[in-house]
Amino acid sequence: MVRFATRGLAALRSCLALPLRALPLRLPRAALFLVLVVATTVVVYASLRLLSPTSYALLPSSKDPAPPAADVVGNIPLDSAMPQSKTSWWFRFFFPNSVHPYKPKARNESVTPKRESYLSEDAYQSDLWKWYAETIPDYDPKALGIVPESRGIVFTSPPRWIGNMLQSAAVLRQLGCQLPIQLSYIEGELSEAELQSARAFNISTVDISQEIKKYAWDESEKGLGGPKVDAILSSPFEEVLFLDPDVMPLRDPTYLFDTNRFKKYGALVWGDTMARGKGSTLWKVMGLKGKYRPEMEFESGQMVFNKKKAWKGLMMAKHLVSQAKYYFKHFWGDKETFHWGFRAVDVPYFINPAYLQVVGVVADKGHLAGGVELQLNTDGTYSVPPGAKFCGLAMLQLDFYDGDENDREAILNYQAKPLFMHGNGLKYSFHAEIPSFYAAMTYVPPPGKFVYEYNGMFHDWIGNYGHLDHCIGLMPVNELSIKIWDWESQNPGYSDMYREAHKIGFAQSIEQRQKILDKKKTDVVQKKKWVDFIQRLEPYDAKRLGIIPGSRGVVLTGGNKWVNNVVMASLFLKDLGCDLPVAFTYLKDQVSPDNLEKLSSYNITLIDITDTIKQYDWSESEMSLGGVKADTILAAPYEQVLFLDPDVMPVQNPIKFFESKTFKRNGALFWPDFMKRDRYSALWKVMNLQDQYAPSQEIESGQIFVDKRLAWKGLKLAQHMAAEAKYYFQGTEGLETDAAADDDNVAPSLDDLDRAQRSKWKRYLRDLKEYDPKAAGVTPGSRGVVITGPGNRADYVILTAELLRETGCTLPIQFSYLKDQVSTEDLERVKAHNISVRDFSNSIKDYDWSEREMSLGGPKVDSILASPFEQVLFLDPDVHVLKNPEYLFETATFKKVGALFWPDTYRRSADNKMWDLFDLQGKYINEHEFESGEMVLDKKKVWKALMLAKHMSAEAKYYFEHFWGDKETFHWAFKATNTPYFMNANYLSLVGLIADKVHPKGGIPLETGADGQPSIPDGARFCGLSMLQMSFEDKPNEPRVSPSTAAEHGFAPQPLFMHGNGVKYAYFDDVPAYHVARTYVPGKDRYVHDYDGIFHEWIGGYEQLGHCIDFSPRPDIDLKTWDWMKEHPGVSEQYRDARRKLGM
Fold it and tell me: Burial of 536 by CB count in 10 Å (0-12 exposed, 13-18 middle, 19+ buried)?
């Protein structure tokens, strides 16, 4: 150490030697050296002072979450500055305004950390949770609205799973569970019908929107279970069993509250498939460095908490979800929120040491929904038959040993029994005719060991297979063996119970939906009725109606009990100096002769309206709700009428109101009721008033001034509506509808948000200006290529452009970018390759997008519109163009329609509510979804559709919930605007690699199968990494030629675009990028889009490959596999060489 210090001083002296020699003063050298050391110190200090605090303390980047807003976590104000703790004198001297390690203070002194004071997000979040932990209020059941010692069950559910939640509730009651159940929901996510279906099961409903609104969440954070902890905390129960809506209890879970483990810990959790890793940054951030312990991640579909015991852990979990933008990057959603929250504040919990069982079905090409029996081996074990695949659709959680928790042997030997069935995949892949879970798979560790004591990936994500979705399996791990067995034979009846409960739960949900549909039909009928009524209505004719023109009078109505009130009203009018005649309408079975005589004695005219009213099919309720009022007014012989309820006493002479300018102009005077008019009533649409709502009070009809001549149509329509009181007098109860054009074409119900969006797109198109190239910054007749992508794709933009030019394409290329996503250095590199750049940030600055909407391609349409080209070839930055695409602009097809699209793997669903939202009911056609990696567009021809696509992208928070990103934005926009387009009928091929455990990067060649056709070797898997799009037959005015007969017509589709969705994640220089291809071969005169069902199987990660997909086997269509590299030599090499040239 001394040696290094000496060398340092020698170096410093040598650095200072020159200025020392230059000094004219003859001072001792040591003194001069000391002066320069002091001067250097002052310079360094001044520099650091200048850097601190703004420059030295790193400011948050655009990707960093904003500092927490006020009151973001409970009722604790977040409005103070970062505390400063005591540090050494030298640190304070050089860094007076820098960040100091956070030291907890007394609660009343604790203040909020500020993001701008921190060099990193990790450091900020570490101090933020520590601050929050210090400020968690004490548990106070009274203040929290919690009933001490109460117990209950809490669900939370997105709208699409409400049927599953009701199914679970039905099972709970079947099992004898009597605990109260609460559904916590977010306003706007569940319709009134769905809430009513829950209440019909005696489930209370609690809106937790106010808490959720405090968090700066996007849809992905909400979808990853963020609301769970608030759902638990919002309940009035002190002891809570939380259940996901797709969890089916297999035993009455009430006993869990009385177990020794729960009484000790106050928190019971179960493990997920994955073991928790050691490498996460959070071990340091959460103050747990060195405190790792082997354990499975939490599986939060079922959790049991005692709020009193687990209060700090739950509150810390609440804080972590409030900061989901940070924490959800480090773990998968809510489940680990509870783990880190509890560990951080040292709140104990019990996690079941028994590993879960993956339960599901076995499927093959002939049984795409499952039903294949397991194979019983000679040694008594089971296995999956050759050619079949196990699809795990549920996670089975077991009970636990509740004796001595230190008795490892007893815990290991405990024969755990089924407790909860978490149907993650079942909710997507339920088939009533097939047992839902008859096959099971789990790990069997060596004797004396638990599964959680082994690290590594535990589950094998399969995704889609056949007609099944969300399948998982288990991967081989170290010393763990995998056991497969016939679960149904050992646990009979559970599949039947699930199926029956499914009927009950979904029947309740369907019943409520049927109410909506039934009411919709009624709405349509009633709309037609009143329109017809008005069309047939004869004009006002006083003589025909027996009315004296210009006459005025007062009219009342009622039964026996109101006779005295009518008399009093007439006397009051006389006392006020009103000499208007008074009439009384009645039904002869409701007013006695004596009372009629009494009324006559007061000079009140009697009018019997019995014959009119008896035509109406009224109940007493409709009668009592004032159905007779319109007929009463119309029956009176006066042209100008004051109608009074018999309990209304006038206090001013009403004649002056007849003389008012307002009455003379409008012919009707009303007074307000205390209730506001319901803006969501179906009647706005039924009566063709959907765009005319304005906040106003309902009419209080106890007193009405009407001029029949001026208000004739309104009075007669009111009479018609009263006659139809069974419809009009019922409450809408939130069953809102979108009235269709006729009785036979009733669209599925659109909720409030849907209706708002429907109005928005219609207004947008109504206000849209015609195509004007000058205003749009477009050069008429110009052509070019547009590429867009996130900032980290600059290399791929250049790669795509270079490969494009190798085809001989001379079109200008533009890279459209967002300025906060692309560095100046990357822009310069792009421009160096003769690619123009255009910043279109201003086009989207007002869009309320999250990272999800951005990543799903929201900017594409704006990037196209921002280009100066009138005719555009749009390319994703991972598309390898295989043939000069300039000819596409010259095709007769493009010249005719101005839009060329290519298909994605999935066929478009006929059930999407977008058909209703865009008024496209009955216009469904068999067609694949758009694959928007490559599109050719003529702005002049398709302007309206492009602009609607822009509008939909701006509203991506809504639209991207109904389809997967930008690609379908174009489809719906073209459909809604009735803009023609061409979709290539030649189905795509998947191109990729074959890999196994020996060749994890791929490169395995195909084998020749028994049928002489190429096949994938046993034990290996195809990983599709690219989508190959083909050319098309350019005969727009002739019937399309199916792929199976194309050769007969002299047409052979050629490879055109290779969209490398997965190549960018799984490229290896020593393995060909495009090796093996697969595609469907439809029958004669058929297209792939003629076939129903799921088309691709999402594999995800496999060995060292990522983003793999394959085609699902189907019994009704052949799946062809071939050596693509052999048929198209040189293409993989071209791609490899281009990457090498760019240093990728």
Answer: exposed
Strands (E), 89-176: 147-156
Rounded CA gap, 169 and 182, in Å? 10
d(CA 415, CA 422): 20
The backbone torsions φ and ψ at residue 499, rounded to the nearest 5 degrees and listed phi first, read -65, -45
CA dihedral of 619, 624, 628, 633, whole degrees rounded to 10 = -170
Residues 6+ apart with CB under 8 A from 575: none
SS3 833: coil
pLDDT at 973 > cutoff 80: yes
Q: Give the model's confidence band at 12: pLDDT under 50 very low, under 70 low, under 90 confident, else very high.
A: very low
Kindly give the pairing relationship between strand 779-788 and strand 869-875: parallel
Residues 6+ apart with CB under 8 A from 269: 298, 299, 300, 303, 304, 338, 349, 350, 351, 352
Range with lowest mean pLDDT among 27-31, 499-503, 1031-1035, 1120-1124: 27-31
Question: pLDDT tens, 20-57?
Answer: 444 444 456 666 666 666 666 655 555 544 443 333 23
Residue 53 preceded by cis peptide, ω within 30: yes
Stretch 252-279: mean pLDDT, rounded?
A: 91
Helix (H, G, I), strand (E, B) or coil at 699: strand
Position 225 confidence tier, pLDDT thresholds 50, 70, 90: low
* Phi and psi angles of residue 1059, each rounded to the nearest 5 degrees, phi first: -90, 105
Buried b (16+ CB within 10 A) or exposed e, 356-384: bbbbbbbbbeebbbbbbebeeeeeeebeb
Closest C-alpha to 134, from 99, 109, 101: 109
CB-CB neighbours of 45 under 10 Å: 13
**DSSP track, 1078-1144:** EEEE--TT--GGGS-S--EEEEEEETTEEEEEEEPP-TTSEEEEEEHHHHSTTHHHHHHHHHHHTT-
Identify whether the C-beta of residue 919 lies closer than 8 Å to the C-beta of residue 976.
yes
Please name every residue paired with 1030 in a beta bridge, in sequence order, or none if there are none: 1055
User: 789: Cβ–Cβ under 8 A, 6 or more apart, which residues?
Assistant: 796, 797, 876, 877, 878
Give the tokens for residue 785.
């290529």
Query: What does the block give as tokens for 866?
Result: 């921002």
Indicate the angle between helix axes 162-174 and 192-199, nearest 10 degrees: 0
Q: What is the mean pLDDT of residues 971-975?
A: 89
Give the C-alpha separation, 786 to 939, whole Å: 13
The total number of residues written for the chain in this structure: 1144
DSSP 477: B
Q: What percent of the chain has pLDDT over 70?
A: 82
CA separation, residue 990 to residues 571, 785, 1075 (Å)? 91, 25, 10
Q: In sequence order, what are the beta bridge partners of 298?
A: 271
For residues 239 and 308, what is the distance between their CA atoms, to the nearest angstrom?
Answer: 8
Report the half-sphere exposure of 655 (CA within 13 A, side-chain side). Answer: 10
CA 808 to chain CA centroid, Å, is 43
Between CA 291 and CA 342 the distance in angstroms is 13
The confidence score (pLDDT) of residue 47 equals 52
Q: Indicate the SS3 state at residue 501.
A: helix
- What CA–CA distance (Å, rounded) separates 99 from 102? 9
Question: Model pTM?
Answer: 0.49
Given a contact cutoff of 8 angstroms between Cβ atoms, the answer to whether 84 and 100 are in contact is yes
The secondary element (H helix, E strand) that includes residue 484 is strand 481-486
Contact between residue 1055 and residue 1128 where contact means Cβ atoms under 8 Å apart: yes
For the record, the structure tokens of 356 come out as 């879960």
Contact 915, 924 (CB under 8 A): yes
Tell me the one-letter amino acid at 831: K
Q: Residue 402 is encoded by which pair of tokens?
A: 């509740």
| Cα–Cα distance, 12 to 16 (Å, whole number) | 6
Compute the chain's Rg from CA coordinates: 37
